[in-house]
Design brief:
Blueprint (H helix, E strand, L loop, with lengths): L1 E4 L3 H13 L4 E4 L10 H4 L9 E4 L2 E4 L1 H12 L7 H31 L5 H24 L10 H10 L3 H4 L8 H11 L2 H11 L9 H7 L2 H5 L9
Parallel strand pairs: 1-2
Antiparallel strand pairs: 1-3, 3-4
Helix pairs in contact: 1-3, 1-6, 1-9, 4-5, 4-6, 5-8
């Protein structure tokens, strides 16, 4: 099994689950600042050119939440089979997939990577992330885990982006959401999470957001023929 990995929240979700499952896997680092995600060999695995991706005995799976479901179903762990708890896990998993993950990503982009500050964009995305954390706060005030009483892939998914909340909220971090913070404190105590963080620490990637990195990361306008990479960053 090969995990195509960059040190991003979405890649960390999969690393945590693989460590929870204690299955052997090989990490294949893909440096998105160097543009390695656009290589034809990687695009054959994930046509969308995003991380993470997984190849398991010739089966390619891409998108972090698709990988979480694939692994949970294959190994029969962290995804309930009973109808009601399974529905709860999948519902909260998808809230993270369609809400927290993309809106956090856009908030981080406009706060830290956009070539100019756009108040409307930052207010829009940071405000929506805050709204989603209020929902998660209410859920975790009433339930130990997102799916109920049992740890699941929904919790693994939440860990990925909640670990980077300070990139959205600054020094406040998760202080406005004490039950989410309690959840994260508990996650940090899990041995599998510690091992996944070691995986991250073992791999060094380019960190300078220079022109080459911008072209590699923000190519939408160029690919669509509507502008330069800098104009759509």
């Amino acid at each position: 099994m090969k995990l195509y990995f960059h040190a991003t929240p979405n890649s960390m979700k999969v690393a945590v689950l693989l460590e929870e499952l204690a299955v052997p896997y090989e990490v294949v680092p893909v440096d998105i600042y160097e543009g390695e995600q656009h290589a034809p060999a990687f695009r054959a695995i994930n046509p969308n050119g995003k991380l993470p991706a997984l190849v398991d005995d010739g089966v390619a799976v891409f998108d972090s939440h698709a990988i979480l479901i694939y692994l949970a179903e294959k190994h029969g762990r962290f995804l309930p089979t009973a109808v009601a708890p399974r529905a709860a896990v999948l519902s909260w998993l998808q809230l993270v997939a369609t809400g927290l993950s993309p809106f956090s990503g856009q908030a981080v982009h406009f706060l830290h990577y956009a070539p100019e500050r756009l108040p409307y964009a930052t207010d829009r995305y940071v405000g929506e992330v805050a709204r989603l954390y209020r929902l998660l706060e209410e859920r975790l005030a009433a339930s130990r885990y997102l799916g109920g009483t049992e740890y699941s892939i929904a919790d693994v998914a939440l860990f990925g982006w909640a670990a980077s909340a300070d990139y959205v909220f600054g020094e406040r971090g998760l202080s406005d959401y004490p039950h989410v913070q309690r959840f994260m404190d508990e996650m940090q105590q899990r041995p599998a999470v510690a091992r996944a963080l070691q995986v991250k620490a073992r791999h060094a990637f380019k960190t300078e957001l220079d022109g080459e990195a911008r072209r590699a990361m923000f190519t939408q306008g160029v690919e669509a023929g509507i502008g330069t990479s800098a104009s759509v960053a």
